[in-house]
Amino acid sequence: HFPRTLQRSGCVFFPTVTHSLRYLHSASSGIPGFPGFVTVVLVDGQPFSYYDSVVRRELPRQSWMVQTEDPDFWESPVRGVPIAHQ
Prior knowledge:
It comes from Oryzias sinensis (Chinese medaka). This is MHC class I-like antigen recognition-like domain-containing protein. The chain is of the alpha+beta class. It has three helices and four strands. Strands 1-2-3-4 form a four-stranded antiparallel beta sheet.
């Protein structure tokens, strides 16, 4: 419970939450049918996005991301996955 003075002032507080972000990169060559470069992005241990050198675009890995994000969001190299491949 918040102190009464803070409740009356209309201040809103959000608890601090820690998250993890991991980029897993894999490179290979000479394996038929397997991409030469793969990246999986994990947030809190859950798959967030996937990129490989065959598909050559970042793909969302959570259904809510497909439903809420603008489709053009996944075409932008800003997040760095396609850049890492180059």
